[in-house]
Structure formats: C-alpha cells, structure tokens
C-alpha cells in the first residue's frame, strides 16, 4: 500500500504567491504556504506505482490511486464499460446522481463476480432535498441503486458542487455525516470546493476536514492554491477530466513527451503526470481499447523531473479549465 502522497507538500503544489491571488482566502492560503517550514522528505524509496497501488484517506480507508470515470456514460453502455474496466484491473469507479448511471455501476460490480469489498465505489449528491430528512433520503436512494440490500454501502459520497448556498451545503454535509454514522458511506467529501467553502464546513461539521476534494486537474489547470490547501490539511485530491476531454490530443508538448517515452499516448502521459503529482486521476472512456490503454501507465517507466517541470509549465490558471476552476 502506498501511503497518501497528499500528506506532504509537493514542491510542484505550491500556490501562486500572494500578490497574484485574487481573493482574501487565496492570499491567506498562499501566505501560509510560503511562510510554513519546509517539510523534510524521507529518503526511503517508495515502491513503484502499480494498478493495485492505493492511497489512504484521512479516516484510514484505502482507495485505489487510479479510478475509472463514468461521467454521463449512457446506461446502455455503462455496464459493459464498467465490466471491461474491472476485467482490465481497475478497482475504483466514480459515478454521481447527475450522471444517471449509479444503478448501472452497481450492476456491473455484481455481474463481475469480484467481491464488493474489493471495489471502491464513489457517487455524489447534486442538490439538497429541502430538508435534512429529504436530503438523507436522496443519499440512501443512491446507495440502494448502487449496492441494494440492508448492508449496502458506497465507499465515498461527495457533495458534487458548492453551488446552492450555505444552507444547502450545511444540509447536504450533515446528511452525509448521518450516512457515515449509519455505515452506508465509508467516507465523505466534496467536489469543486475552494478554500472558502471547505473552511465554511468548520462552522457546522462534526467530520472535518472532508476526506476528499474532487476537482478538475491536468497540466493546463493545476489549481495550485486549492491543491496546496488540501495537502496541508490532509485532504485527498481526486482529479477529474485528467485527459482534458481529449482536447489536447495534438498538443506539441504532450505529443513530444509521448514519443520520448517509447511511443506512449498523450492520455498515458497525462494520467502518469496526475499520479506523480499525488492526485487520484479518474480517466473516462467507453472504448474498450482506451480503457485498457489508460490503465497501462506502469511497467517500469515514469516521467522524469524535467518532464514534470515541462508539464508544470503548461498551467494556464483558471483559463485552462474546461469544466470549472474552484473559487477560493
């Protein structure tokens, strides 16, 4: 098991200096990062990454480092895609209420014959129900779709977005805490949350910090302020859209690095970059060959320090986001 790389501040994750920040929260986070003592990293070599590598969430739950995203994967193909991913070796699948395929994800797990306890399943609540009881009912409904029966559970349940206002965020977080108490969720977290929204949770949360923050991350949108903040507070970072939705397939920097590494694909370079940054990437595809390709990022090769520096230099800040950058 690979301990969570988020527990130490990686030099590539330093936020932009305070003078470049646009919000008080961002400036405060930058000031804290640059004034904190440098952490000494152990010289002990880490075991090489593999498809079975895991990170450990703040509540000690292991989570596979590579996930399989099923964003808006149509129900008619989602089961087959998940089954192929599981056959390939993935053991981590990411769904959401908004994706409308929670039931298909669960069906694939049951059809696979792989023990439920060997697979890490994530979903997300899109919006509050209007009352604590109605919101909790929405959470339980998702669990029932994914893992039917009285002992059914999800490994991770996230708030999909901070939009909706403070009371909606309170309602959803407290309902997630209740689901955690019931054992129907093994861990809870957030998605698309910036520094301010996570700090706000302190006002009413029994469970803080959130175990996970899932945000858009790739070389063109590195979100350094929130990444640094999450690392400092031991919040595991998941990266959605790590492949930039194939919009950078012909980027000359990426294609050059792919050729340099023995004919790897741009997607493989992007996934390997995310893994070496200490993020948990969630690449999505419904094409069997690409599902396999996206998992073939191990086997004794890695990006060198120079490669990582080149990729770090592609950051375009908020302008590089294809979905959304968080508000800090």
Question: Could you explain the architecture of this structure?
Answer:
The chain has 328 residues and is α/β, with parallel strands linked by helices. Helices cover 37% and strands 11% of the residues. The protein has eleven helices and ten strands. The protein has helices spanning 24-35, 75-88, 102-112, 132-146, 166-182, 195-201, 224-232, 252-260, 266-277, 288-295, 305-312; strands at 54-56, 62-64, 68-69, 92-94, 120-125, 156-159, 188-191, 212-216, 236-240, 280-281. Strands 3-4-5-6-7-8-9-10 form an eight-stranded parallel β-sheet. Strand 4 (92-94), helix 3 (102-112) and strand 5 form a beta-alpha-beta unit. The radius of gyration is 19 Å and the shape is globular. The model is unreliable at 1-22 and 33-44 (pLDDT under 50).
Task: Summarize, please.
37% of the residues lie in helices and 11% in strands. It is of the alpha/beta class.
Judged by helices, strands and strand pairing, the structural class is alpha/beta
Helix content: 25-40%
- CA radius of gyration is 19 Å
Principal-axis shape equals globular
Q: How many helical elements?
A: 11
Task: Please specify the SSE layout and strand pairing.
Elements: H1 24-35, E1 54-56, E2 62-64, E3 68-69, H2 75-88, E4 92-94, H3 102-112, E5 120-125, H4 132-146, E6 156-159, H5 166-182, E7 188-191, H6 195-201, E8 212-216, H7 224-232, E9 236-240, H8 252-260, H9 266-277, E10 280-281, H10 288-295, H11 305-312
Helix pairs in contact: 1-7, 2-3, 2-10, 3-4, 4-5, 8-9
